[in-house]
Amino acid sequence: MKRIFLVGAPKAGTTSVADFLARHPDVCPGRDKEPNYFSDVSGRAGSGTRVAPTWRDYESNYSDCLHTQSRLDASTTYLYCDTALDRIAGRWPDARILVVLREPVSRAYSHYLMDRDVLGQEDRDFLWAMDRSYHSRHGFHGSPVNPYIFASTYAPHVEQVLRTFGRDTVRIMLFEDLIADPARGLLELCRFLDLDSSRTTLELPESNTFRSLRFRRLGRLARGCLGPVRNTMPPWLQKMARAVLVRHQGAKPALDAELRAELYHRYFEADVDALGELLDLDLSRWRTLYR
After folding, report:
1. How confident is the model over 152-176, as a mean pLDDT?
2. Handedness of CA 239, 242, 243, 244 (dihedral sign)
3. Strand runs (DSSP E) across 68-115, as ranges?
4. 203 part of a folded domain
5. CATH code (residue 161)
6. Helix (H, G, I), strand (E, B) or coil at 50
7. Cα pseudo-dihedral 262, 177, 210, 232, rounded to 10
8. Residue 245 domain-assigned (yes or no)
9. Looking at per-residue confidence, does 110 or 210 come out higher?
10. Which of 65, 168, 233, 248 is the most buried (most CB within 10 A)?
11. 130 inside domain
12. Torsion over CA of 126, 45, 162 and 69, rounded to 10 degrees?
């Protein structure tokens, strides 16, 4: 049984990639695609993700996967947790590791909109959230960090992934490449994972479209009450709760170009340069957005 880990980054197209892989008959995503078993977390990891607290819970997540070639764990907390990477490598040193990265301000803004409009955890504007939003409730692994900046700072985390697993078993993908030419990107992904591409459709599913809470106060109350037991709820009940509390709204609000450039230069430019050097990758498509 092969193991595939889609370790990040959140709000960078990972749900679409996970949904694509889950459609393949040789891949089983388990009942919960983000069990977060290997992360240094308890209860919650980041915003809205859940944890399998024991090895028995983790394995039972894949109890329906006895006849598939590969198991998929799409926990996006793993990218930011060195001990999670070490634990995975200790069990499955030949696991295939997938990392999807997105232009950092766009990723941070999408993360902020989720926290504000879906989770009801932000009520300030984006600039304030970037400059001063240090909340342990949003932090990774319980750390009081700014989640929007932290999760868009890629170079040190990608370096740790490569150091732990080696370049031959790690696939780095750019969100922008997948959007521009999904068929090519998904074909290359299938080849990397030794999956027969003829057994699936090389189309990127549209996942996590822009949504917002219908009633913000009710949504916050429901999340507080249902959060601890959400993982035990049957899928049909989870789907019904989402339909009641969340509405789809099409295109997300645009981000001011000057603010985007300011945030890029203030928080991410040096990291993008380091990432490009680490991967020997041309990231000019990210840089040219701000010149």
Report:
1. 97
2. positive
3. 70-73, 96-101
4. yes
5. 3.40.50.300
6. strand
7. -120
8. no
9. 110
10. 65
11. yes
12. -120
77: domain range? 2-208+256-290
Q: Which two tokens stand for residue 12?
A: 């960078």
Q: Can you say how many angstroms the Cα of residue 257 is from the centroid of all Cα atoms in its chain?
A: 25
- Domains of the chain: total: 1
Per DSSP, the three-state class of 168 is helix
- The angle, 0 to 180 degrees and rounded to 10, between the axes of the packed helices 182-192 and 14-23 is 60
Asked whether the predicted pLDDT for residue 270 surpasses 50, the reply is yes
With residue 129 as reference, give the H or E element that holds it: helix 126-132
β-partners of residue 44 are: 42, 50
The reply to whether omega before 9 is within 30° of 0 (cis) is: yes
Question: What letter represents residue 29's amino acid?
Answer: P
Q: Which pLDDT tens digit goes with each residue over 79-132? A: 999 999 999 999 999 999 999 999 999 999 999 998 888 877 888 899 999 987
- Let me know how long the chain is: 291
In a domain, 47, yes or no: yes
Judged on CB neighbours under 10 Å (0-12, 13-18, 19+), 243 is exposed
pLDDT band at 183 (very low <50, low <70, confident <90, very high): very high
| Secondary structure class of 147 (helix, strand, coil) | helix
Give 237-245 contacts, CB < 8 A, sequence gap 24+: 244/214, 245/213, 245/214, 245/215, 245/218, 245/219
Q: Rounded distance, CA 187 to CA 213, Å?
A: 36
